[in-house]
Write a structure and sequence with these properties.
Length: 155
Amino acid sequence: MKNFTINQKVAITASILGLIDSAYLLFIKLTHNQAMCLPGLGDCWTVNNSQYSEILGIPVSALGIAAYLIIFVLLVGKKYLPFPEIILDQLIFGATFAGFIYSFYLTYLEIAVIKAVCPFCVVSALLMTTLFVCTLLRLVQNRGDYILSLEEKNG
């Protein structure tokens, strides 16, 4: 991670931690191991077994793994993928924005509907928020470069 900016390092770290967090939640879901929910620290078990913990039979934590993995690959692969940087930045922005909105929705469900809060879900929401903010900052910082590259293409 030697050639990455601080912003990129934070984003890459957040995506790795999000991947680990989501994998932990998936492991709890698949093994039905309530002890792994850390008794006395929120109510992970209730949230992870609610009707909102799956979409079409797919655990939300598995979707989290996919999202964090895609974001990680796009962040790290920017130097290796055969796409213009502006396209990759926009893909990362789209993925983190969708993840941020969905995390916000899930947090609302925990508080208002399920009436239980999973600390691991909160960690995931904070990590996705961090990714979204890092991506937004990168887009704002590089907006001049994007405008120049568009002007060069259009003559």
